[in-house]
UniProtKB/TrEMBL annotation:
Location of this chain's protein in the cell: Mitochondrion outer membrane
Tree of life domain: Eukaryota
Main location: mitochondrion
InterPro entries the UniProt entry points to: ARM-like, ARM-rpt_dom, ARM-type_fold, Armadillo, Armcx_regulator
Keyword Lipoprotein on entry: no
Matches recorded under Pfam families: Arm_2 (PF04826)
Domain Armadillo repeat-containing: 1-163
Homology family: Belongs to the eutherian X-chromosome-specific Armcx family.
Entry keyword annotation includes Protein biosynthesis: no
Organism: Nothoprocta pentlandii
GO CC term, one of those recorded: mitochondrial outer membrane
Name the record gives this protein: ARM10 protein
Name of the coding gene: Armc10
Entries under SMART domains matching the protein: ARM
Length: 163
């Protein structure tokens, strides 16, 4: 894992970055690796890939962060990317893999109410995706909205959202 993270930091080749992120994402599917990747500063290394202009690299980084977000300690570090992920979801092509990857990450990050306040401005986007997206996009947007709606503090924001 340490060598993969080093390789990810040291290359500008999007094809290599994509393959490394896929491998890290697969490794992150096993909870035993969550702490290891976090302790190797992997969350910030992977998170920096969200600034990449290549949609496939961003998508793979989101997938890796999604798998890593099943850990409360990791969520505390991943939360710094929530607003950027929201912006990426809004600017991504409708029904794209990038948009779906962002929604999946937000679904995990919204299971508890800790980070709901960071998603308030994107509620109109989630509602738009619910009405305009394909079935896969609608399901992912609905999961985020259901998680947000479980928090009474979000009721007013959801009901007042302009779509």
């Amino acid at each position: 894992l340490q060598k993969l993270l080093h390789l990810l930091q040291s290359t500008d080749d999007p094809l290599i970055q994509e393959q490394v992120l896929i491998t890290l994402g697969n490794s992150a599917a096993f909870s035993v690796n969550h702490d290891i990747i976090r302790n190797l500063d992997g969350l910030s290394i992977i998170g920096r890939m969200l600034s990449d202009c290549t949609p496939r690299v961003k998508e793979k980084a989101l997938n890796a962060l999604n798998n890593l977000s099943m850990n409360i300690k990791n969520q505390k570090e991943i939360q710094v990317y929530i607003m950027q992920v929201c912006k990426d979801i809004e600017s991504a092509s409708l029904n794209s893999d990038l948009q779906l990857a962002g929604l999946r990450l937000l679904t995990n990050m919204s299971v508890t109410s800790d980070y709901h306040h960071m998603m308030i401005n994107s509620i109109p986007c989630f509602l738009h995706l619910l009405s305009e997206g394909n079935e896969r996009t609608q399901i992912q947007a609905l999961k985020v909205l259901v998680n947000l709606s479980a928090n009474p503090a979000m009721t007013r924001h959801i009901l007042q959202a302009r779509v």
